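subagent[fold] <- orchestrator: predict structure for attached chain, return C-alpha cells only, no commentary.
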Amino acid sequence: MSTPAPSNPKSTPVTSGDPVTAESFEYRLHKFWENYANSIYMFCAIVLIAIIGKGGYDFYTVRHENEIGTDYAAASTSEKLKAFAAAHSGHQLAGVARLRLGDEAFASGNFTQAGTEYMAAAEVLKTGPFAGRARLGNAMAKLQAGQTAEAESQLKQLASDAAQMKAVRAEAAYQLASEAAGAGRNDEANKYLDQVMTIAQSGTWAQRALMLRATLPAPTASLSVPSVGTTPAVKLPAKP
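subagent[fold] -> orchestrator:
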C-alpha cells in the first residue's frame, strides 16, 4: 500500500537534473503590470494632459487670431487704425495698419508722418511684399521731404535687392531715373532706366521707363577732331 501524500505539501526543490518549466507569457505580463502599472498610468496621464493642453492652446490661438482679424476689419477710420496698431503692437496686421496710415499721410502731403508710419510698418512686417512696400514708401516720403541723399540711398538698396518683389525694385529704379533726369544727370538716368528694363521687361514701370527715356536728349557721339596745324598722314601705295 502506497504512502498517502501530505495535506500541505511543500514544493520539491529542483535538482540540477530536473527540467526547468518556462514561465508563460501571461505570467510575465502580469508580473510586469504589477511592477510598472503606476508608472504607465502616470506616463499616459502626462501624454493626455499634453494633448489636451496643445489642443486648448491651438483653439485659443485660432480664436485669438480670428478676434484680431475682426478688429482689423472694423478699423475703417484713421483713428481706429491707430488704436488697432497700438492695441496689437507687433502683430502682422498692426504692421499693415501702419502701412495704411503711411499711405494716408503721404496722400495728404504729411511726408514726415508718412515716413514715421512706413518705418514702423517695416519694423513689424520685416520681410515679404508688404515690408518692401513700406520701405519704398519710407524712401519716397524722404524724397518728398527734401532728404534726397538718404532717399536715393534707400532706393538704390531696394532696386538692387533680389529678395524684393520685381514691382518694388522696378519702381525704386524708376524713381532714381526720374530724379536723375530732373537734375539733368541724363547718363545716370539712362543707367537706371536700363535697370528698370532688366528687372521688368513689361508692365507699368517698363512702359513708364520707355516714356521717360523718350524725353531725354539723345547721347552725343564724341568726334575726333585733328589738331590745328597738323597734316594728316598720307599712306603711299605699295610698290608693285
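orchestrator: received. Logging for downstream: Residues 108 and 124 are 24 Å apart (CA to CA). The chain has a mean pLDDT of 80.
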